[in-house]
Specification:
With 944 residues, the protein is α+β, with helices and mostly antiparallel strands. Helices cover 18% and strands 40% of the residues.
Length: 944
């Protein structure tokens, strides 16, 4: 072909390309346009609004109806309400200060072109508004839909509600459902996480409200007009399409602003939070610079950070993020965690707002993608494997630390080993409860992208992201689009990789099976095929790298003749971040020894220790009246061996303990363990030895608090001791009260547990808790006692005066045992009849009742101690009445005992909003007992 012909063809192709681009531009999808006029009654928490939506049919088919989401109209079942109360304990907050409220959105009229339109509200949760068009909307045609509606704003925490001086409004108006080649995406408003999917749209909003209120919003303020009667009207617009329009309102907002080249960041805050607001603004700016360099600039003129009574860390919206007010009170040594929270939500300006995705079915494209790039941002800023906490010298000597990288995989590893793994891609409703979303979609999802980078390289991933974020800017991307881009830019078929990791719950677990002088045998104990490298280090210092595609169950590597192997590492670069067990990747096994200045429970949490090694931790331990040495040898996430030696100053005794626990028996959330002890005392007849064996199965994926009693069942065998916890670590609290343990020549087999639906932790105002226990003592393991006893306890919680947070808690407990002449129960003490000492009321049978009336004396105290490590949030008063009796053979032989008392409950936030604790003080007086003095009891958590 001649050069002249080539040139002519080139010119023709260029002309065709330009024409194609022009045609595509002419027929580009027209975004929806919203025009909203809203008057906010901040006193009565109501909105009266008119909305006009211009919808263009960008499809190739006629449309006879349009669908809108009306999220505030959500109708909740009793089961869902119970779940919301319980799950609120995960975030350590009561989301309904006056009892459950959901608000409402009422449609008054809908019309188009001057004609009223018929509509119907659909869906099991009543959040889908179907609008029937009088004339079918043809492809390319536009239609204007007018609506009058009103909104009731609930008194509740969250992205739609008000509390104290802040009103938070997200998705508060009718918002169009997405229509594409798959039809209308009319998803329910699922009760947790964010079930959102919306087209990028233009907004013009005229907002009228009291002029004293500060307003943070999507878009930018074009004009502000002061009205008569103490109100103002704000005209707010968006220059570029956004996914939604959100508002944060408060008459106490203050603002700190910083200006970048093309946009301004406004960090709103309440009085006293100025320093944190400045930090938040600069964290957001650094994040936006990082994301802009990789995914295109932030096109909007403003970005707002808005404090809100969310009840959880943060929530994204368009041009705006909401951050829980408690986050502003994090201790200084958690500034990096503060950065993490701000930056995670800021990153959603790209992976939610600029590039939309189906958050109900394909959360990975939003949360997994953002979590991966957030980790890159944090490590780019703080260094590889950057630690979360920047501990002061006062804590550095005692507190272990962990990294952002380790926490990304840790939640997934826990879920996978305990039988809660599931495909990353799936409907939001497929997740059993919200914490599993964080483990699977966020953690596992980010890990998948890390492994993708390891397979194809940073440069190709960068090219993928350039296309991802440019081709789908202001559009919606699907998983199939992402995979298509990956295949094209990587130049290979990555479908098997994504199929395995995203759409199955298969796992990968590479291991060194055997090593001899002639060969090394590797195996994959999981089901996912992944390429892996193995480094072999010989005694003479020579290194060899072997590559295995992982397509076979095992791989044999020949050892070089007459060479001794010093070390073998499978996946030495840790590129397979979701490898379930890394201890088996090394030969010989690695042992990490960590002496500590004070041994306590944190050193038994896997995230604080390396995953690749067996970990030996040892150091001094301190008890209420003892001093000693404690140690543990752990295989991360799998099992732990404990050894302790303590001197008890009160008993003048030396106590030694040995314990072992296996954490996930049968790949379930089941712990099997034992603990034996020997107590050698210098006091006569005070020597003691015994132990326990236990099998505990959790009935709920996670405990929502350090002091929470998770649903569970435990089988146990005791010798001269009580059950206490399932272990000396964190495998779960037990709550066996009022049973009398002699702890001398006594062997007991028992089963106990708890089942409940109550919340929020740690001060329920809703629900119930049921705790049964059955024990048998006999002549085994050296026991010389023979009896059985059963107890059934039922606790109930009710909100009596919701507006004032007055609560009524009740308890009824029945115990029965044989033989009838034995002391099997004790009713006195802090967990029974509080007007009596522990051993004052004993018997073989018992009945116990209790009633507590709980009311706040002072809330929102904002009394912070030790750099916000401790925060006294509330003081609660309690009036109580206990009644019960214990008897032997003759029920009539003993009278019912009664007491009354008053108590105080000091509610503390620990580490900002990460944990809660209740300190209890009770003063009780026995009724009709002139010889009984008042009793004072101290404790943690509510009595029942």
């Amino acid at each position: 072909m001649s050069a002249k012909i080539k040139k002519a063809i080139s010119h023709h192709l260029s002309a065709i390309s330009i024409l194609f681009i022009l045609v595509i531009s002419c027929f580009a999808a027209e975004p929806p346009r919203y025009k909203i006029e809203a008057k906010v009654d901040t006193g009565n928490h109501k909105i009266i609004a008119k909305q006009t939506v211009v919808f263009t049919n960008n499809s190739d088919q006629e449309l006879k109806e349009l669908y809108f989401h009306i999220y505030p109209h959500r109708k909740y079942t009793e089961k869902e309400i119970r779940f919301l109360y319980r799950y609120a304990g995960y975030f350590k907050v009561n989301p309904f200060p006056e009892g459950f409220q959901s608000g409402d959105l009422r449609i008054e009229t809908i019309s188009s072109q001057g004609k009223a339109l018929n509509y119907i509200i659909e869906g099991e949760d009543q959040t889908i508004l179907k609008v029937n068009l009088d004339l079918a909307l043809k492809p390319g045609e536009s239609r204007e839909i007018n609506m009058d509606f009103s909104v009731d704003i609930p008194h509740s925490y969250g992205r739609f509600g008000w509390h104290q001086d802040i009103i938070t409004l997200a998705r508060w108006y009718p918002i169009l459902s997405v229509f594409d080649k798959d039809g209308w995406h009319n998803y329910p408003f699922y009760i947790f996480h964010q079930p959102y999917f919306s087209d990028a749209s233009y907004y013009q909003v005229k907002l009228t409200l009291p002029k004293k209120f500060g307003v943070a919003s999507t878009g930018y303020l074009k004009e502000e007009v002061t009205n008569a009667g103490g109100t103002k009207t704000l005209n707010i617009e968006t220059d570029f399409p956004v996914r939604d329009f959100a508002l944060g309102l408060s008459d106490n907002f203050m603002v700190y602003s910083i200006k970048e080249d093309k946009f301004k960041i406004n960090a709103y805050h309440l009085k006293g939070d100025e320093a944190k607001a400045k930090e938040a603004a600069h964290f957001a700016l650094e994040t936006m610079r990082f994301y802009s360099q990789r995914f295109g600039e932030y096109p909007y003129p403003e970005f707002n950070i808005v404090p809100s009574y969310l009840g959880y860390g943060g929530c994204q919206s368009s041009n705006l993020i909401f951050i829980d007010t408690r986050v502003y009170k994090l201790p200084g040594f958690l500034d990096r965690y503060f950065d993490f929270l701000i930056s995670h939500e800021t990153g959603h300006q790209w992976f939610y707002n600029l590039i939309g995705s189906d958050e109900y079915k394909e959360m990975f494209l939003d949360e997994g993608m953002n979590s991966y790039w957030l980790l890159q941002y944090l490590e780019n800023k703080y260094g590889l494997d950057a630690k979360v906490m920047v501990l002061p010298k006062s804590l550095r000597w005692i507190m272990p630390n962990f990294s952002f990288r380790s926490s990304t995989a840790a939640r997934y590893i826990y879920m996978a080993k305990n039988g809660f793994d599931q495909p990353i891609i799936g409907e939001l409703s497929s997740f059993q409860e919200p914490s599993s979303i964080f483990a699977i979609t966020y953690g596992k999802g980010a890990g998948v992208l890390e492994m993708l980078e390891a397979i194809i390289g940073k440069d190709k991933l960068a090219k993928i992201m350039q296309r991802y974020t440019s081709e789908f800017r202001f559009k919606n991307i699907k998983l199939e689009d992402f995979i298509k881009i990956c295949n094209e830019e990587a130049g290979q078929d990555l479908n098997p990789f994504f199929q395995q990791w995203l759409k199955t719950k298969k796992t990968v677990d590479f291991a060194i099976k055997s090593v001899t002088k002639e060969e090394i045998v590797l195996e994959n104990r999981g089901q996912i095929q992944m390429p892996v490298r193995t480094k072999i280090v010989y005694a003479d210092g020579q290194e060899k790298i072997d590559s295995w595609d992982g397509s076979t169950p095992t791989k044999v590597i020949a050892v070089e003749k007459d060479k001794a192997i010093k070390k073998i590492e499978v996946d030495p670069d840790n590129s397979i971040v979701l490898d379930l067990d890394r201890t088996n990747n090394y030969w010989p096994k690695e042992l990490y020894i960590k002496p500590v200045p004070l041994y306590f429970f944190a050193y038994e949490i896997p995230i604080f220790l390396p995953r690749k090694s067996y970990n030996l931790v040892l150091g001094p331990s301190v008890g209420s009246s003892s001093l000693g040495i404690a140690s543990s040898l752990q295989k991360p996430d799998d099992n732990i061996l404990r050894l302790g030696l303590d001197y008890d100053f009160d008993g003048k005794a030396l106590e030694s303990t040995l314990g072992y626990e296996f954490s996930h028996l049968f790949n379930k959330q089941t712990a099997l363990g034992f603990e034996i002890f020997d107590y050698e005392s210098s006091k006569e007849k005070n020597d003691l030895s015994g132990g326990k064996i236990y099998l505990r199965h959790e009935l709920w994926p996670s405990s929502y608090g350090l002091f929470d009693l998770n649903d569970h069942v435990t089988f146990y065998l005791l010798r001269d001791r009580r059950l206490d916890k399932a272990s000396s670590g964190l495998s779960g609290a037990e709550d066996i009260q009022n049973n009398y343990y002699r702890k001398k020549d006594e062997a007991i087999f028992g089963i106990t547990g708890s089942l409940g639906c109550y919340g929020p932790y740690p001060d329920p105002d809703y629900g119930w808790k049921f705790m049964p226990t059955q024990e048998f003592a006999g002549h085994f393991l050296g026991g010389n006692e023979s009896f059985w006893r059963s107890t059934l306890e039922l606790n109930n919680y009710h909100l009596v005066l919701p507006k004032y947070q007055h609560k009524l808690a009740s308890r009824i407990k029945i115990g029965w045992g044989e033989a009838s002449d034995k002391k099997l129960f004790q009713l006195g003490g802090s967990d029974g009849l509080r007007g009596y000492s522990r051993k004052a009321i004993e018997g073989a049978h018992m009945i116990l009742g209790g009633l507590e009336y709980r009311l706040p004396l002072k809330s929102d105290l904002k009394f912070y101690l030790l750099d916000n490590i401790l925060h006294l949030d509330k003081i609660q008063a309690v009036g109580f009445f206990d009644v019960g009796k214990a008897w032997f053979a003759d029920f009539q032989g003993n009278d019912f005992k009664k007491d009354v008392g008053l108590g105080l409950r000091f509610h503390f936030d620990l580490l900002g909003f990460l944990e809660k604790a209740v300190l209890r003080i009770d003063v009780a007086q026995a009724l009709h007992e002139s010889k009984e003095d008042p009793h004072i009891w101290l404790g943690l958590s509510q009595t029942f």
